[in-house]
Structures are given as structure tokens and as C-alpha cells.
Design a protein that fits this description.
The chain is an alpha+beta fold. It has a single domain, classed as tt1808, chain A, CATH 3.90.1570. It has 5 helices and 13 strands. Strands 3-6-8-9-10-11 form a 6-stranded mixed β-sheet. A 5-stranded mixed β-sheet has the order 2-1-5-4-7, with helices on both faces. Strands 12-13 form a two-stranded antiparallel sheet. Strand 8, helix 5 and strand 9 form a beta-alpha-beta unit. It starts with a helix and ends in a 13-residue tail after the last strand.
């Protein structure tokens, strides 16, 4: 029995009473509480989301609020952006089976980069999320992981801000990275 099943009422009470913008996630036996994202985080996410919306598959819609849950309940993650079927989002609550998600998009937080680069990378692979896109404004990079197998992804593609990165089907487009903004200006370095 996973953390969530053992502590369901506790986790649900935290979710009900958390202030707006606070996200509750779990992975294995760890509970992760995250504060509201910064303006630059939100700006970069909006830049990415606008481009995805132009290529969203029929019957799917974007969401920034759903918690994707592993089949065994071992992890529940709330990606910054994911695409889920309309019928899944029509159900009550904010949880969705991981098998329904087409992609997980995360904009790296400067205070906890390991959560996106290690913990979520592992969890999304275990959940078999087909595509995992990491936007890292600290490093001015965007990385796409695909082909999940067990606890890792087989394929990785890295690009710098200003370039473009190919997003495979069912989206099928090149994501432009020119409008992304780094957390700090490093042009003088």
C-alpha cells in the first residue's frame, strides 16, 4: 500500500486547506508541498502553452491543475502543464490516471531543481507519461524526454533558449524557444 492510500484523509485535508497556488504532490513516502510559481515561471509556461494549444490533439485539453496519479498510487504529480482527454477532466475532483496524460511539462524552480530533474523525471517515466518536457530558465535550456521504460526515458533531446525543439506526435510541431526568459540575465558573463 502506497503513501497516498495509507494517508488519504491527511493528504485530502491538506489539499482542501492549502492556500491558493500551493500544490500538494507525493512520491513514494515523500509529501511535496510547493509554493505558487514566480512571474517568470508563469510567463515561460504561458509561452510554451500557447504553442501547444495550436497543435492540441482532438479530444484533449490543457490543464495546469490536475494531479496525475500512478496506477499503483505510488506517486501523484501535478505538472505545470499536461494534456488530458475532455472526458477525464469532466469527472469530479482534480486527479487523473497517468495513462491518460499525453505529456508533462515542467518549468524548473530555482529553489528546487532536483524535483523536476530527478524526482519527477523518475516518476513520470514510471507512470509511462509518453513525453516529459523540462524548461530550465536557470540554464537557458529545454529538454524533451520520450520513450519511457520502467524508471527512465530512453530518448533525450536538448536545446538552448532561442532555438527550437521538435515535439513528436500527437502534437507534431517544432516548439519555438526564442520567447523564453531566463531567471537572471547572464549576458555579462
Amino acid at each position: 500500500m502506497g503513501f497516498y492510500e495509507q494517508h488519504r484523509s491527511f493528504v485530502e485535508e491538506l489539499e482542501r486547506t492549502a492556500p491558493d497556488g500551493v500544490r500538494i504532490e507525493w512520491s513514494g513516502d515523500a509529501l511535496v508541498v510547493q509554493a505558487a510559481p514566480s512571474n517568470l515561471h508563469q510567463l515561460n509556461l504561458a509561452q510554451v502553452r500557447r504553442q501547444f494549444e495550436q497543435h492540441e490533439p482532438e479530444g484533449y485539453v490543457p490543464t495546469e491543475r490536475a494531479v496525475i496519479v500512478a496506477p499503483d498510487g505510488s506517486a501523484g504529480r501535478g505538472p505545470d502543464l499536461t494534456y488530458l482527454p475532455v472526458e477525464v477532466l469532466s469527472a469530479p475532483g482534480n486527479r487523473a490516471p497517468a495513462a491518460e496524460a499525453l505529456i508533462a511539462v515542467e518549468v524548473v524552480s530555482p529553489s528546487s531543481p532536483g524535483n523536476d530533474w530527478m524526482d519527477k523525471l523518475h516518476d513520470y517515466a514510471v507512470m509511462r507519461i509518453p513525453l516529459y518536457l523540462i524548461v530550465d530558465p536557470r540554464e537557458r535550456t529545454v529538454t524533451l524526454f520520450s520513450e519511457p521504460d520502467h524508471d527512465r526515458y530512453h530518448t533525450r533531446s536538448d536545446r538552448k533558449f532561442g532555438e527550437g525543439i521538435c515535439i513528436p506526435e500527437p502534437f507534431g510541431f517544432t516548439l519555438g524557444l526564442a520567447a523564453l526568459v531566463p531567471y537572471e540575465d547572464r549576458s555579462g558573463e
